[in-house]
Amino acid sequence: MADVGTRLSPEAALALLRRGAEEILPEEELLAKLREGRPLTVKLGADPTRPDLHLGHAVVLRKMRQFQELGHRVVLIIGDFTGMIGDPSGRSKARPPLTLEETRENARSYVEQAGKILRQEPHLFQLRYNSEWLEGLAFKEVVRLTSLMTVAQMLEREDFKRRYEEGVPISLHEFLYPFAQAYDSVAIRADVEMGGLDQRFNLLVGREVQRAYGQAPQVCFLMPLLLGLDGREKMSKSLDNYIGLTEPPETMFKKLMRVPDALLPSYLRLLTDLEEEEVAALLRAGPVPAHRVLARLLTAAYALPTIPARIDRAFYEGLGYAWEALGRDKEAGPEAVRQAEARYDRVARGGIPENLPEVVIPPSELKEGRIGVARLFTLAGLTPTHAEAKRLIGNRGLRIDGEPVADPHLEVALSRPLVLQRGRDRFVRVRLGEG
Fold this sequence. Notes:
This is Tyrosine--tRNA ligase. It is built from 19 helices and 13 strands. By secondary structure, the protein is of the alpha/beta class. Strands 1-6-5-2-3-4 form a six-stranded mixed β-sheet, with helices on both faces. A five-stranded mixed β-sheet has the order 7-13-12-9-10.
């Protein structure tokens, strides 16, 4: 589909790209670049401080996929060098720097997961590491870069301004980060740079630095930040409010069914290609059908090696669902999604799933054929410590074979396999090992 761009006018291509975008700076420059009729170089910089990607990352990556479908080339720049600085964007304190080896190890997983969204054909995708040009950058070039902005301009950035006013230390090396990211744009002659709203300042610095090096400035393409499952903070693995791109179908389905109702409009608009009237119809139908359609769409899409170009009604109906049923046709759909949905429904009704992970308890852990309940849950991996197990028992948060555990000093016999449960949906089957 790399020739899609030749079938769309520049104005139609811009209208397609504009959907879901928070800000395009400046939009008229993007239209002018599209009118040039050449493949654009669309850049995304990524500091792989963590190896796992989630649906928050997918918002930007899916927009890059749209550029690819229009015939443009995306360049994923792994910040193996800038990762040693640590991106301060949106942070209240300096991010601990990583070693070059740590960033490259994380990058391998990052690129593999991004490949679920981005097409990999050489004319549509390029992978670069910014150590290629930053590691050998002469000090005089660093001086030249930093001379392009004043300290006052740097302190206009919201996170720096807040930290300065609150007396939180700002290291000088953090000021270098926007310049390093901007130099990436110079190195690849970027036409467009993608990023979330928290990257606005950095992307605008890229425009100024490109001008200083005699290049046409890049267009800054900013996407909204996806809030996580807590409904308060942007999606982040460190906040445990995330939905991973490579999570098992049953986990992804469960998490999507728990998206706060207030976030359903943004999830449907940012993570799918449903038309506005289709989103409106789902929202009118209520949160339950809207959740089910969202969960089915995304669970099915991300279970594939590469997601489809469009996650829309046609994709949904191609899975075997009837759009008009609004989530009631539970016997339809791919096997993995059907099983995930059945598991979710069974747990929601207070039942126990059929397929559970199993933990074998060594006989040496038992005394006179019994084991303390707190120890049992900790060995099963459902609680980190005995103290946490006892706290949860006090809150009726642990169950054995569906029955709440009331006594934190209970001694449990393992004469047969038992199902341990934490909360609503964490289950493990335990059995006694061979003596």
